[in-house]
């Protein structure tokens, strides 16, 4: 298996970013035991508590292994559910991998909202940091209405802990079957952000960095959402609307910044949005050429990292999204020793002609 543990030491806390990818070809239950045991060992050895957690695999596999996680994690499970995220079977098999953000030092406090644990806060020095994962929606509603529910629930949770959407540097929009309704999703998100004065004609935009990808929640729901927020201090984050080789995504109708930064428990975190092979005008480049799209995407991510005052050495984790299993195999063959801590998975990107996407997160000590 592949296990990468990145530790970032700060004045008031230590942050851990743990990436675990199972051994190829094992049954899902064995893969789950392998990665859950490895992650638990890392958490225990570092006396760390979970802040945010995601597990990527097929619907069937993830439904089966939830019990295994509960048994292995034991008292590390504080009642906040991980994001169980559905992808098709990839190069590793039915489970693509697992990611955990954890912290050592200050207390991690589960956030209760409407009778359920939905996220966690941690206060390190003057920074109060919030994580929320897998916001539930009504599976019987239309995809449009589920997206609207998701955003309003996120806002209600933020208000519950003393924040609002201007406290949010990073969102992850997990949108099953994205190609069927991405325009509709953008209509919902754009209207929501405009109402909150986050975007608008003649104003400086305040859009979170984001990923919108065809990785949906396990089950019948159309979408779910994760986010991070800096509840305190009020000036503890910023946005990079235009970044690297690309202009504002809002110019072609999608409300997210190319990157953002935020104070986090151990220092400053830089978020690079889901990034693909797109030029300054928002046009897909290297049509039908997966090899070239892979290279251009990596170059675009590195360019945004540089503008956020980070390098590849600062990376905490990355997700690599490949449109087909063949493109995943191509990436792994092209970069057999890819140095970034990463999980590869098979998922549609937001356009039919985009074959590859990467998002990345770095921590500057």
Structure commentary:
The model has no long low-confidence stretch (mean pLDDT 96). A six-stranded mixed sheet has the order 1-2-5-3-4-11. Strands 6-7-8-12-9-10 form a six-stranded mixed sheet, with helices on one face. A six-stranded mixed sheet has the order 13-14-15-18-16-17. Helix 6 (325-334) links the parallel strand 16 and strand 17. The protein has 365 residues and is an alpha+beta fold. The protein has helices at residues 28-45, 59-73, 143-160, 178-195, 290-307, 325-334; strands at 2-9, 14-21, 49-57, 83-86, 95-104, 108-113, 116-124, 127-132, 170-175, 209-213, 216-217, 223-232, 237-240, 259-264, 267-275, 315-322, 342-346, 356-364. The chain has one domain (2-364): RutC-like (60s Ribosomal Protein L30, Chain: A), CATH 3.30.1330. The chain is built from six helices and 18 strands. The protein starts with a strand and ends with a strand.
In short:
With 365 residues, the chain is α+β, with helices and mostly antiparallel strands. The chain is 27% helix and 34% strand. Strand 9 (170-175), helix 4 (178-195) and strand 10 (209-213) form a beta-alpha-beta unit.
CATH class: Alpha Beta
Examine the coordinates and then state which fold CATH places here, giving the name of the CATH topology. 60s Ribosomal Protein L30, Chain: A
What count of helical segments does DSSP give? 6
Largest sheet: 6 strands, mixed
Number of strands: 18
Distance between the termini: 28 Å
CATH architecture name? 2-Layer Sandwich
Q: Name the structural class.
A: alpha+beta
């Amino acid at each position: 298996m592949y296990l990468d543990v990145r530790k970032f030491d700060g004045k008031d806390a230590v942050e851990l970013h743990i990436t675990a990818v199972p051994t190829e070809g094992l049954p899902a239950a064995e893969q789950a035991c392998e990665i859950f045991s490895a992650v638990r060992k890392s958490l225990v050895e570092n006396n760390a508590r979970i802040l945010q957690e995601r597990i990527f695999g097929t619907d069937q596999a993830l439904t089966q292994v939830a019990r295994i996680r509960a048994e292995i994690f034991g008292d590390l499970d504080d009642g906040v559910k991980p994001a169980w995220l559905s992808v098709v079977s990839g190069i590793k098999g039915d489970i693509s991998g697992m990611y955990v953000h954890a912290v050592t030092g200050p207390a991690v406090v589960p956030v209760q909202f409407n009778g359920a644990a939905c996220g966690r806060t941690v206060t390190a020095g003057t920074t109060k940091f919030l994580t929320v994962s897998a916001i539930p929606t009504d599976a019987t509603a239309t995809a449009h209405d589920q997206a609207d529910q998701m955003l309003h629930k996120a806002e209600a949770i933020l208000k519950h802990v003393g924040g609002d959407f201007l406290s949010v540097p990073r969102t992850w929009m997990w949108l099953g079957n994205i190609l069927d309704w991405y325009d509709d999703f953008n209509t919902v998100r754009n209207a929501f952000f405009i109402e909150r004065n986050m975007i608008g004609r003649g104003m400086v935009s305040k859009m979170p960095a984001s990923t919108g990808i065809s990785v949906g929640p396990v089950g019948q729901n159309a979408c779910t959402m994760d986010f991070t927020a800096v509840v305190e201090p009020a000036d503890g984050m910023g946005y990079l609307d235009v970044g690297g080789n690309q202009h504002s995504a809002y110019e072609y109708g999608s409300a997210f910044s190319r990157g953002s930064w935020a104070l986090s428990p151990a220092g400053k975190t830089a978020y690079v949005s889901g990034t693909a092979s797109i030029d300054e005008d928002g046009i897909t480049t290297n049509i039908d050429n997966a090899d070239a799209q892979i290279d251009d995407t990596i170059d675009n991510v590195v360019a945004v990292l540089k503008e956020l005052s980070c390098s590849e050495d600062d990376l905490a984790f990355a997700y690599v999204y490949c449109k087909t299993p063949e493109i995943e195999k191509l990436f792994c063959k092209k970069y057999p020793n890819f140095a970034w801590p990463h999980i590869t998975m098979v998922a549609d990107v937001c356009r039919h002609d985009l074959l590859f996407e990467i998002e990345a997160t770095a921590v500057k000590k």
